[in-house]
Every structure is written in structure tokens, then in C-alpha cells.
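hiii, so i know i said id send this last week but things got crazy w the move. better late than never?? heres the sequnce for the chain we talked about at the cafe, plus the structure i predicted for it. fair warning i was half asleep when i ran it
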Amino acid sequence: MTARLKASIAAIALLPALASCTETSPEAPPPLSQEALDSVSKDAGAPMDQLARQIDELFTKDGLGETRAVVLMADGKIAAERYADGYDSETRHISWSMAKTVTAVLVGMLVADGLLNEEAPAPIPAWQRSGDPRADVTLEHLLQMRSGLRHTEAGDPPYESSEVRMLFLDGRDDMAKWAKEQPLEDEPGARFEYSSNTTVILADIAASALTDSDDPDARRTAVADYLEERLFGPLGMTSMVPEYDASGTLIGGSLMHASARDYAKFGEFLRAGGQAPSGEQLVPSGWVAKMLKPSPASQHYGYQIWLNRPNPKLESPHPLFPDRAPANLFSLIGHMGQYVLVSPDQKLTLVRLGHSNREERPPMLNEVADVLVLYPER
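okay and structure toks below
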């Protein structure tokens, strides 16, 4: 073999190595900060580095909005917990519409006490007058957002919204009265229409079940004491502060305040079928099952709670991610990106609180799903 041939063979042998030098290698992810690593417990039930990175991206990745708090419970223990600057484990965060699910539990406790019946017509005297078609609206219709009452949740301009008018304009002093005065626009039970005003009607019904008094202080005290003694106290939700309007009605559709840990306690309570950590059954497990049963008018909604069920009839994007998490996952959802996600099959509760606009919420939820997929279904 000539020297020239040997040189040619050697050059050919080097070609793959030379080619690999010119190819772009995948860029390694940046090292995790100590804050990111410290946010994850050693027995988190998932790979620590992967979990820490996914939680970190909720706080640092562009285009997701502002994440202020994340608490992840796995098998009943805190697996991850992190807060943005200016927030900590004691900070109270507004619930917005996550309050609706608390109101549904309140109604369920009153049903268990024999004070209400979800299958009966809603106990609203004005609706029971002869010839009033609203007499056919049941308590369950209200719970499932299919009452048929006239409503526009989000108006353009905002003051055309029924919710805004009730909360801040002509209905603000007696919100339930304003909401109950609305006529029907659909047959009761026929159509799902998300309505914060409907939940205020439920809160008003709850107050009337607990006291005959019209005095605002008496109504407020009756509901506040009942919630504290029967729900918040047994769950150790010491930070919870519900708001009431001038008539003493719980603003049960949108205005409660609590720490991220207390929202996680509420999610775990639902995951346990209505049991407190002590084992006390605070609301019947059958009621929780009804809350999580898909409405006949909407497969992705139960009793004041969102379900991770596919719904081909939706005209807008699904509020959760049925393609990326178990079908029995459910969630409290509040305005601008407040979430308490509960996945019974994975034994998880994940709380994400912050501020994300309409465009930021889908990618943010995708990051949340990336956290959940680190845990197997059981």
C-alpha cells in the first residue's frame, strides 16, 4: 500500500469525527438555582431535578404570566412549595371563582343536615308565585350552571357583564336580590352557562337555610360560624377570609382569601372524598361524588367545579387538559390563572396562584401538565 493510499484511508476515517464537530449539539439546560432545588422535598415521589426544573419554569419561563405561589401535595405530603418575591406561606391570595367550589361544599353540608334538597325547586319565594316559569329551576340546576337565567358573564364593554353589574354597579349592595330578579332566557336545565351570579344565589339560599333573619349581621354571622365550625376549622384552614355584601350574603362566587397551603388543604379534602385529616367526614362522600359527576348539559363541569373530561361541544378551548392528565382530574379555577388541581389517580393536589392573561394561560397550563406527568397513575 502506497503512502498516498494510506493517507487517503486515514482522511476518510476521520470524516465522521470531523462532521460531528460541525454539528450543533443540543444545548444543555442551565443549572438549577439553589432556590429551585430547595423548593422540592427529598421524598417528592418524582425525580427531584426534573420536578425542580418544572416548578422553576412556572416562575421563570417567559410568556406564562406571573406565578406567585405553587404548592404540590403528593400522597398527602408537601412535595414542592415555592413563592415569588414578596409572597410567602402566610400570604392570602384572592380566590376569584375558586370560591364557587367552597360554596358547593357549603350547600352539600346543608343538604346532609336536611336543610336543603338539591332535587327540589330552588327555595326562592319570588320564583314560586303562580305562573312564574322560574319555579322549575332546581337547586341542582343552579349547582350545575344550567338554571336558564339571563346572564352574560363577560361583557364587552365590561359594564355590560352581568357579573360586573352585580358585584360593582347596581347590584352590589344586595347581590343575590339582583341575581334572582333576572328572567329566564332558556328552559331550566337545557343549557350550560357559566355564571358567577348563580353562585351568589346559592350562597343566599344557604344563608336563608341557616337563619330566618334578614339582618345583615345575623346572616353573615350564621354563615361564617357554620363554615368555621364545620369546614375551615376541622381542615385547619386558619387563613381563610370570605367576603360578604352589605346584605350579609356570602360573595360565594368570587371573593374569598386564603394562603396557598390552605387552598391545598381544601383540594386534599376533596381528594379524600370529603374527609378531614382526622378522618372526620365533613360532607358525605356521596355529595363529593355528585360534585364530580358530569352535568347533563356539559361533560366538563359538575357542581361548581371543572372536570378534565373531553367535551366535543365546546366552542372555546377546554379549560383543562384532557389529553395530558387522567379523566378524573378536577379543578377549582379562578380568574387570571388561579388553580387547585386534584388528580385522585396520581394522589396529587397542585395549587398554582398568580396572574396570567388569556394568551398566557394555555402555555402556563401546559407547564403545569409537565409537572403532573412526572407522577404515574396508580
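btw Confidence is low (pLDDT under 50) at residues 3-22. thought thatd interest u
miss u guys!!
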